[in-house]
Amino acid sequence: MALRHLGKKGIQASFKRGFGFSSLSNLSSNGELPQKLTSIRYFHASRKTLAKRKDDPDRPLSHRERKKQSVKTKAKFSKRDKKTDKPPAEAPYIPPRLQKVETGMAEKTVEVFEGMTLVEFSKRTGESLAVLQSILDDVGETVSSEFDAISIDVAELLAMEIGNNVERQHTTEGSQILPRPPVVTVMGHVDHGKTSLLDALRNTSVAAREAGGITQHVGAFVVGMPESGTSITFLDTPGHAAFSEMRARGAAVTDIVVLVVAADDGVMPQTLEAIAHARSANVPIVVAINKCDKTGANPERVKNQLAAEGIEIEDIGGNVQVVEVSAVKSTGLDKLEEALLLEAVDMDLKARVDGPAQAYVVEARLDKGRGPLATIIVKAGTLVSGHHVVIGCQWGKIRAIRDMVGKPTEKATPAMPVEIDGLKGLPMAGDDVVVVESEKRAKMLSEGRTRKYERDRLLKADEARIAELEKREAESEDGFDRVELPVIVKSDVQGTAQAVSDALRTLNSPQVFVNIVQSGVGAVSMSDLARAQACKACIVAFNVKGCKISPAHASVKVFHHRVIYHLLEDIGNLIVEKAPGVSELEVAGEAEVLGIFKVLGKRREEDGVSIAGCKVMDGRVFRSGLMRVLRSGEVLFEGSCASLKREKQDVEQVGKGNECGLVMGDWNDFRVGDVIQCLERVVRKPKFISSESGAVRIEC
User: Fold this and answer.
1) What is the CA angle 567-569-574, rounded to 5?
2) Which of 218, 160, 222 is nearest to 434 (CA)?
3) Among 235, 381, 493, 532, who pairs with 185 as Cys (CB 3.0-4.6 Å)?
4) Where are the strands (E) in 150-304, listed by range?
């Protein structure tokens, strides 16, 4: 028997580790247990040993335990929670947030030129030849080989169809290059004498015929210099703060910027903006200090202000010429002419004369008898009557070319401003003029640009709508109640309509959102009135005539204006009128406690009432207001007024300097010297603020 040969020490070790038959088989020849046991089977063990075995994490699982564990993991045998009779918790509904539209990769600009091959175009755009060939088949163009040359119009169409922007490159090889007149843009602050200076140069009186005495359009003129006999093309830009885009377009097409600063006014906000536009366009500046004939003129102060803004004038060793002039007395004009011609000679201005023309739209308007008209400046080439052109998304065949005096001409050479008609629609100010070879090519290019323009417009509209909804959600969380003011803008020219729309958008406030429903050129028509009535909008007619308003459209508000100041003032007042306002508590009056009178209750003393004998020190105290008790500047209580009497009579309010008795509903602990404030709830409307520079804003 193994138990008989088991020593006392071995038995103690066996019971210490847990007794079992497997333990006996692991005994050594000398009766001792080995140091490591592979497994121990517990047949007869104490409760303490079984508990230790159960808590051992390294022990192997039994067959029954493994079976139970596998059953728990199965879905159909899983234990379900018991149903309770409690109703589900009511959680507030939170609408899902709108996700931003994925615009994909940023559009890249592809440079195209005449005679490039399809293979080279594929390398520049990264598009496969098969895709480009399918696009050419869809538009009706045939290319026999990928190494054949394609025209610049077809290359632009391909780039637009695959979603890329286009930059046309024109070569001057084999072309006739000749000197051209400089294009000079006159910029500066409003009412600093820009148009008067141009009138003095060309002996006209345009400034006297302008509405309000300020320029509100971009004008292009050719002025012959009397001293040298040469000609200079001038662009006159508005100086009001609302016409920032017009000044930017003028700086983009110009060669030299004439910065007009009034000697009696100095550097103003639009002067600084004109300097920024000239620097961004990388064009030289010639400073003309005007109104030097006035008594308060100080040209030296103007020079110091310009130097402080980083303009390196010649007096301090810079290269910016400064000329002191007077448009009223026509003094200093010869020096200004000399400075402009000297700057043009240093720039060595030349342009290609032959070949298709490249031009830039300065302004566009709609004439009742002639249709859409565009004022353009030719940059290179020669524009001839009868050419097919594409301007932005519009196309047409030029029927007539007129100079800025209105005289018909057959062609337009570089740096020459002209007005063309024959377009199918009204282009946008700032569009490039592209001459194509046929009407078919013009239609094809116009349709491709229209498709791309619509895609870009819809993407921008979605992004703007999501941004506006997020802004409204944030404002609604802050407690703002925002209303919408729909507006239809009609103007005489395209650039002014865009400027008026941008100026109205600057009047947006946390309480009123100005929504430009439509912006167009031409007189107010019946369709405009019908649309305004349908969307409950007002119509802003700037420098245009209005039609007769029928009784059916009598509810539509139409604002006719010729001066931008008056227009912004009227719309600002309308915004203030429509604004819901912000409800606030305001101190209507203050009263000081001079004495305390206690009225005992019928049953207990605690049921008594304390009457505060007060004197109104400021404002008025009325019974319906909210009362606030202050002691040593600390608010002790806020509540309603239970009774207000003067000379034993109930009154609704007590004015300044009068005495009264006041009882508050839940407050009896009055002391002499306490201050009682009477608060009233008022609706605070926003304010329309206009600065001296012409900038306007709505302050809430």
Assistant:
1) 95
2) 160
3) 235
4) 165-169, 177-179, 183-188, 219-224, 231-236, 256-262, 285-290
CA–CA dist 203, 210 (Å, integer): 16
Pick the residue with more confidence: 25 or 560? 560
- Taking residues 30-53, report their average pLDDT: 52
d(Cα 352, Cα 54) in Å, to the nearest integer? 98
- What integer pLDDT is reported at residue 208 of this predicted model? 38
pLDDT in tens, 46-57: 666 666 666 666
Q: Which residue has the tokens 């006209």?
A: 204
Could you tell me which of 39, 7, 8 has the C-alpha nearest to residue 23?
Answer: 39
Q: What is the mean pLDDT of residues 156-169?
A: 80
Token pair belonging to 100: 């931003």
Q: Cα separation of 657 and 614, whole Å?
A: 10
pLDDT value at 427 more than 80:
yes
CA atoms within 13 A on the CB side of 138: 10
Query: Which residues, 6 or more positions from 390, have their beta carbon under 8 angstroms from its beta carbon?
Result: 433, 434, 436, 442, 445, 446, 449
As separate numbers, helices (DSSP H) first and strands (DSSP E) second, the chain gives 17, 34
What is the DSSP secondary-structure string of 82-120? Answer: PP-SPPPP-PPP-PPPPPPPP--SPP-EEEEETT-BHHH
Mean per-residue pLDDT of the chain: 77
Name residue 689's beta-bridge partners: 697
Beta bridge partners of 113: 169
**Location of structure tokens 């600084």:** 272
Distance of alpha carbon 61 from its chain centroid, rounded?
Answer: 69
Report whether 188 contacts 260 (CB < 8 A). Answer: yes
Task: Look at residue 295 and tell me whether its pLDDT is greater than 60.
Answer: yes
CA distance 443 to 436: 10
CA distance 207 to 117: 53
Cβ 454 vs Cβ 163: under 8 Å? no
Distance CA 155, CA 114 (A): 8
Q: How many CA atoms lie within 13 A of 159 on its CB side?
A: 25
How sure is the predictor about 22, in pLDDT bands with cuts at 50, 70 and 90?
very low
Structure token pair of residue 32: 């001792």
Contact 621, 644 (CB under 8 A): yes
Q: Residue 349 and residue 181: Cα distance in Å, rounded?
A: 7
Q: Which of 207, 193, 121, 128 is nearest to 157 (CA)?
A: 121
Q: pTM of the prediction?
A: 0.61
pLDDT digits (tens, 9 = 90+) for 578-633: 888 778 888 889 999 999 888 875 554 556 788 899 999 999 998 888 899 999 88
pLDDT tens column, 508-550: 887 888 888 888 888 888 888 888 888 888 898 888 877 777 7
Tell me the β-bridge partners of 166.
Answer: 110
If residue 444 lies in a helix (H) or strand (E), which one and from where to where? helix 439-477
Q: 230: exposed, middle or buried (C-beta count within 10 Å: 0-12, 13-18, 19+)?
A: middle
Which residues does 183 contact at the CB level (< 8 Å), separation at least 6?
233, 235, 253, 254, 255, 256, 377, 415
Cα–Cα distance, 637 to 675 (Å, whole number):
11
Please tell me the distance from the alpha carbon of residue 311 to that of residue 271, in angstroms, as a whole number. 12
Straight-line distance from the first to the last Cα atom of the chain, in angstroms, rounded to the nearest whole number = 105
